[in-house]
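Lecture notes, unit on protein representations.

Consider one protein chain, 440 amino acids long.
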Amino acid sequence: MTKPNPCSCRDDKHVKKYFIPILITQIFVGCFQFRQTESAPVVETAQITKAFPTEAETVWSTYDPNPSHLWNRVFRQLYRRTSMDGMEYGADELDPLLWPDTTYLVNGGVSQQQAIEVLDEFLAAHAEDLIHDPLKRAMFQHDLWAVFDWLASQPEPYPTQRHALATRLAQIIRSVALSRAEISSLPDNYTLEVEAHTFLSHVSVNHPEAAFLPSDIFQPDGAWVPMGREGGPIAMTHTESFPFFGRSVFLVYVHPSEGRTAALDFINALNTDPSQALTTGLEIALIRRMLLIDDQGEPALSPLVESVQLRHFSPAQNFHEFELSRARLFHSHAGGLVLKEDLFLLFMSHGDPFGIPGLPLKATIPQICKGCHFESPPLPNPSNTQSIISYSRDPFPLPEREKPILFAVTSEAEAQTVIQWKLNHETWKSLEELWTQNRP
């Protein structure tokens, strides 16, 4: 396994021109790359000192109405973060609020001891039998898998404590696994959200800045066309980087206003004559679909959409992001997707904000998006393809700065590409080693 990697910018002039204002105002967010040869500095982040606070307990009634239910207690112990002013976060965050330099769960303190205790209680009680709802079991497994990958992606510091947590998590991840048929039968939450008509189904001509959720994005042979890349996942940086590590399939869809033929022509133009790939009126979606581990120990693509990032060029970019809410999903509020106005900086972040006094916890949309998908040149123009990183690879170049070869693909084919990447990653190999071990 490799050690945690600090972020660095590849081109100082480029960074100064486009990123510095965003980095300062948005918690050092920007287009950074991980280096494989250095370790991130260890930051002693704040510990959770109380196992079960008496205020707002119902916020943590995620998997059962009873906040003291074992599933809720496990989830709360791993996902709850407390800021320096005493505010609690994490109850309905899609990803755990854990950074490469976070230590409170592994430094031998109170929080780590509480985590060991509640995981041991879960295993001893065979608490996987307490909830049989496939949707909740799927979400719970994915929640714990994210924490496992955080532990497995870096052996230091505190390797013994990391292993103790990882061993227990692996057994619970296995115990709640669904069959391949059950995974396939999970709800299509994106379609449920579209059918609820909570959001516009297309771009408003008069208000292009208004958020929308395309109703036809998954239509077979439709106008929205997913792109693939020769040599690996299309959304390479999202797939391979912290905090995702291949647990989700990121699908890149393109949608020119003229329809499917124009979408195929657009993709072809990116390979042959990018000057002809006009972006005005173009829409691009980054769809994150959940991978799960079936009861045979194999990754499988599920129907669950975790997040949707949309960009509409008019010709300036309009950004929107939707994210899955467990509370809404479990209580049948359409498909559980909510429009986000700000986000915790996990992807391409610069450290755990809970351990840095005075640092804002979140960054707003669209500022956080523009950190990577900037206009190049800086003034919007009809052929601004540089902000499409799948094509430009700027500032996330391929090895030896080779040019990507793009093509139309299916979501199933892209999922297999991501799964193959995951199977060769250190986090998966760590899970495989622990998968068949007896319970601690």
